[in-house]
Amino acid sequence: MHAPVEATLARWVEFDGCSASPEESGRRESQSGNGRHTAVRLVFAGCRGGAEIVLWKLTGPGHVWPGGTRDYLTRWLGPSTQVIDANDEIIRFFLRFRIAPRGGAA
């Protein structure tokens, strides 16, 4: 069993010394045959060492991969969503950081 996302975020926020209250830095909405879906981007700012904690909080979709296969196992997983694409968000996040190769400059 996994801890609730709020408990996990609280641990990381404390570990990284971030502000305990996130700032909303984006909001998206979509309307489809599956109903209205919203996505709110929450950023915990002021973290030590340039760390950043970001959460996209979704309302409306089921337990699905956002932007993934549409209407996949809806009976068990709930409605799919295209309100955000999780793959794009992950790539966008990691492209902001660059690690220099070992033994020399990038």
Features:
globular; 106 residues; 3-stranded antiparallel beta sheet; Double Stranded RNA Binding Domain
CATH class: Alpha Beta
What CATH architecture label applies? 2-Layer Sandwich
**Helix amount:** 10-25%
What value does the average pLDDT take? 90
Tell the overall outline: globular
Tally the structural domains: 1
Q: State the end-to-end distance.
A: 41 Å
**Number of H/I helices:** 3
Q: Report the order of strands and helices.
A: HEEEHH
Q: What would your notes on this structure say?
A:
- With 106 residues, the protein is of the alpha+beta class.
- It has a single domain (5-95), classed as Double Stranded RNA Binding Domain.
- The protein contains three helices and three strands.
- It has helices at residues 5-16, 74-77, 86-95, and strands at residues 23-32, 35-44, 53-59.
- The protein has a three-stranded antiparallel beta sheet.
- The protein starts with a helix and ends in an 11-residue tail after the last helix.
- The mean pLDDT is 90.
List the SSEs and their pairings.
Blueprint: H1 5-16, E1 23-32, E2 35-44, E3 53-59, H2 74-77, H3 86-95
Antiparallel strand pairs: 1-2, 2-3
